[in-house]
């Protein structure tokens, strides 16, 4: 890769004692490491000014396009510490490839995959002391993102763009842990529509999901499951996670990639690990009614949601304005088996038979 990084260590970096205090109770996305990566793209010039520098506020012109038109994308990935102290990324090329698919949808420039991965590696290396021990499912959450930083109010693709990577030591996303979360099925709000940005990881999708998320909170639920916008029938995904069902005859069923949902890397990994564990992976259209009827009559015995931040969380029940449905398998046996299967690879406790780990 021809881009070289200018490394500017942070003179105000936290002491080891301060880092240890954060790692003892990191929460999720609350604390950030001492550094960040920044790379600029200028039309006609390409990517330049790759820098690893002290973490801190950005200077943006108030007219920067991202602040007005939301031309922005991001990724979510993690670095895991193994028992021998080594640190590993999980399928980082999948994040790099998805980042470019999101970029293409949002008219942002392509970032060479190797530059994306190198930027992540640079940050993890300089801030390696923030990668927690594996205990309690702690990890370093990494957030690469790209913003239209050009100062210009016309509506067009920005001609100056900034790519940044920040990182945050994290514990579990859900405080419920493996007890299982309740999911609200909204019949009012949609997250994405055909031809929209549902399969791009852009900030606007998350802003649009908040109103439904808060509707879910009002009904005692942790997350919301979205149904397709037009037919009001096809199950899509949660605000920040994909969804799975386990059937009594050992099918591992998840909505097919319809163009309106995110193609989760955890989703893809679960389909492969589940198959290795003897389940039959099935990606197909699932109607909301079929899911609820299937839970009621025992066709679907377990349900879970999955994503990098939330890992794999059992779903204790679904709620909607029409009622409440609780899968019979409240011990979540299959879910926990799959969850352990994925986590054991990520934390180096099982053989990485798929070649998914990338040592930093
Ligand atoms: N769906 C949405 C909307 C998400 O935000 C995420 C999280 O990244 C996922 C699914 C799961 O994707 P992944 O497993 O790649 O983290
Ligand atoms: C992730 O799982 O990485 C996500 O991006 C979901 C959410 C935290 C936005």
Automatic annotation (TrEMBL):
<keyword id="KW-0032">Aminotransferase</keyword>
<keyword id="KW-0808">Transferase</keyword>
<dbReference type="GO" id="GO:0052655">
    <property type="term" value="F:L-valine-2-oxoglutarate transaminase activity"/>
</dbReference>
<dbReference type="InterPro" id="IPR043132">
    <property type="entry name" value="BCAT-like_C"/>
</dbReference>
<dbReference type="InterPro" id="IPR001544">
    <property type="entry name" value="Aminotrans_IV"/>
</dbReference>
<protein>
    <recommendedName>
        <fullName>Branched-chain-amino-acid aminotransferase</fullName>
        <ecNumber>2.6.1.42</ecNumber>
    </recommendedName>
</protein>
<dbReference type="GO" id="GO:0009098">
    <property type="term" value="P:L-leucine biosynthetic process"/>
</dbReference>
<dbReference type="GO" id="GO:0052656">
    <property type="term" value="F:L-isoleucine-2-oxoglutarate transaminase activity"/>
</dbReference>
<dbReference type="InterPro" id="IPR005786">
    <property type="entry name" value="B_amino_transII"/>
</dbReference>
<keyword id="KW-0028">Amino-acid biosynthesis</keyword>
<keyword id="KW-0663">Pyridoxal phosphate</keyword>
<comment type="pathway">
    <text>Amino-acid biosynthesis; L-leucine biosynthesis; L-leucine from 3-methyl-2-oxobutanoate: step 4/4.</text>
</comment>
<dbReference type="InterPro" id="IPR043131">
    <property type="entry name" value="BCAT-like_N"/>
</dbReference>
<dbReference type="GO" id="GO:0009097">
    <property type="term" value="P:isoleucine biosynthetic process"/>
</dbReference>
<comment type="similarity">
    <text>Belongs to the class-IV pyridoxal-phosphate-dependent aminotransferase family.</text>
</comment>
<dbReference type="GO" id="GO:0009099">
    <property type="term" value="P:L-valine biosynthetic process"/>
</dbReference>
<dbReference type="InterPro" id="IPR033939">
    <property type="entry name" value="BCAT_family"/>
</dbReference>
<dbReference type="InterPro" id="IPR036038">
    <property type="entry name" value="Aminotransferase-like"/>
</dbReference>
<feature type="modified residue" description="N6-(pyridoxal phosphate)lysine">
    <location>
        <position position="201"/>
    </location>
</feature>
<keyword id="KW-0100">Branched-chain amino acid biosynthesis</keyword>
<dbReference type="Pfam" id="PF01063">
    <property type="entry name" value="Aminotran_4"/>
</dbReference>
<dbReference type="GO" id="GO:0052654">
    <property type="term" value="F:L-leucine-2-oxoglutarate transaminase activity"/>
</dbReference>
<comment type="pathway">
    <text>Amino-acid biosynthesis; L-valine biosynthesis; L-valine from pyruvate: step 4/4.</text>
</comment>
<dbReference type="InterPro" id="IPR018300">
    <property type="entry name" value="Aminotrans_IV_CS"/>
</dbReference>
């Amino acid at each position: 890769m021809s881009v070289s990084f200018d490394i500017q260590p942070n003179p105000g970096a936290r002491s080891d004692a301060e880092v240890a205090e954060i790692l003892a109770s990191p929460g999720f996305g609350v604390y950030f490491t001492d550094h960040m990566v920044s790379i600029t793209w200028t039309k006609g010039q390409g990517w330049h000014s790759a820098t690893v520098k002290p973490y801190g506020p950005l200077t943006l012109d108030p007219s920067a396009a991202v602040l007005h038109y939301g031309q922005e994308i991001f990724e979510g990935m993690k670095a895991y510490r193994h028992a021998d102290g080594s640190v590993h990324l999980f399928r980082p090329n999948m994040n790099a490839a998805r980042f470019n698919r999101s970029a293409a949808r949002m008219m942002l420039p392509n970032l060479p995959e190797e530059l994306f991965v190198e930027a992540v590696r640079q940050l993890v290396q300089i801030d390696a002391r923030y990668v927690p021990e594996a205990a309690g499912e702690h990890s370093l959450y990494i957030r690469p993102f790209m913003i239209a930083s050009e100062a210009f109010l016309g509506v067009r693709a920005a001609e100056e763009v900034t790519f940044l990577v920040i990182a945050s030591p994290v514990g579990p996303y859900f405080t419920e842990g493996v007890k299982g979360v309740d999911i609200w099925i909204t019949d009012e709000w949609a997250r994405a529509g055909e031809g929209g940005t549902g399969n791009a990881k852009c900030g606007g999708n998350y802003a649009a999901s908040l109103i439904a998320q808060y509707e879910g909170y009002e009904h005692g639920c942790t997350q919301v499951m979205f149904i397709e916008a037009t037919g009001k029938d096809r199950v899509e995904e949660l605000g920040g996670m994909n969804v799975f069902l386990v059937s009594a005859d050992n099918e591992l069923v998840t909505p097919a990639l319809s163009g309106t949902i995110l193609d989760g890397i955890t989703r893809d990994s679960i389909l492969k690990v589940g198959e290795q564990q003897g389940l039959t992976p099935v990606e197909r259209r699932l109607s909301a009614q079929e899911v609820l009827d299937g839970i009621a009559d025992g066709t679907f015995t377990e349900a879970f949601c999955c994503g990098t931040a939330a890992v794999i969380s059992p779903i204790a029940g679904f709620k909607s304005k029409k009622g409440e449905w609780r899968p019979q398998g409240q011990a979540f046996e299959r879910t926990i088996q799959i969850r352990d299967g994925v986590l054991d690879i990520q934390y180096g406790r099982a053989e990485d038979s798929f070649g998914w780990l990338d040592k930093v």
